[in-house]
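Please, structure for the following, as tokens.
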Amino acid sequence: MHVESFKHWGFPQWFRVVTGIVEFVGAAALIIGFWEQSWTAVGALVLGITAIGGILTHVRVKDSFKQTLPIVILGVLSFIVFFIRLSDLSDFPGFN
């Protein structure tokens, strides 16, 4: 399914792997954020930026709203979590 989607969007297949790694890192940061709250903000920001790229991709190829809606919801939720945890970002390793 994802191979066909990336062909439809006009991206090379190696970009599918890179996107998966970025999404995995964002999800892992959210899980780590369960114990260390500053990681939640970082994970949400990574996923939110990835969602912006996904939304722009769907708009560029003129996908339907039904196809675009899941990434819009993910992006909105990611940025909500990011802004809730924004104050914890100052405690992220390397920022203090």
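Residues 5 and 84 are 33 Å apart (CA to CA). The chain has one domain: 2-88.
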